[in-house]
Write a structure and sequence with these properties.
Layout: H1 13-26, E1 31-37, E2 43-49, E3 56-60, H2 68-85, E4 89-90, E5 93-94, H3 95-101, E6 104-107, H4 112-120, H5 129-135, H6 159-168, H7 188-199, E7 205-210, E8 214-216, H8 224-237, E9 240-241, H9 253-259, E10 265-270, H10 282-297
Helix pairs in contact: 1-2, 2-3, 2-10, 8-10
The structure holds zinc ion (ZN).
Zinc ion (ZN) is lined by residues 62-63, 66, 152, 209.
Length: 299
Amino acid sequence: MIFINTYNAAPDYYLQSSAVDNLCEKFRFIRRFAIGKSLCGRKITALTIGNRKNPALYAAAFHGMEWLNTLFMLSFCEELALAYRNRSSADGVNVFTQLQKRGVTIIPCVNPDGVEIGLHGSESCPRYKKLIDSITSDTSSWQANARGVDLNHNFNAGWRELKKREMKSGITKPSATRYGGTRPFSEPETVALKNLCLKNRFSHVIAFHSQGREVYCTYGNTPERSVVLGETFAKLADYRVALPDKIAVGGGFKDWVIGYLRTPAITVETGLGKNPLPLGDYLPEYKRIRRALFKCLFV
Ligand SMILES: [Zn+2]
């Protein structure tokens, strides 16, 4: 592995922003843009390297506790940028040549408010503090956005069926996890991702979650390339290809990308243990998945 910055703190909004500033200063060819803003006005940042036509999309931290994936995305972006600048290979992948054909867009954190609530409590979202406090006094396991909607239950893919399952499980109102909102795309974060995908024709999509060291690649009439992508990732990272729990079927970003856009997509559940995974898992797990991250850009 070539030398990269290592991170020794959880990536709250401030640390994320300064890490992205550093990356973009070091590598001027990285295109940085905001795909939208969270409920509390935090930018949802995207970084693109290479060809802007038909790139792959990697997106992470849909859930508040899953910020270790933000670090994976920042490290991966840095390794990719270094290889691109040096016109060198990484793990047998000729990054420069490949990225000129097909670039990548990386979103290190889809849910900046959720991560902030998990790390700094309800004070980090003053407008929604009352609501958050009414849901839980322990925000360390917060997964949703600032008004208690689980972003990965808010996409328009089997949303009604998912809603029925939520109700059966007793989830009927804003919650720290698994409440899908009053309608699909009711949240600015999911709308931002939807608009990005409608504007760009992504070659394929990987959504990063935690935990379980598992890969989910099916939704309804699944494109063959989705399965190839899932199997490739699983093989290289020594993860398992899995079928989701019933409540996790539908409503997710990967489901909408497959079901509506007919674009190959997978969900990767990184790491093993209890969320939030400890900071100490960052480097060992990154080393475990980095080969899969490189190779899956060009599947
Ligand atoms: Zn998740």
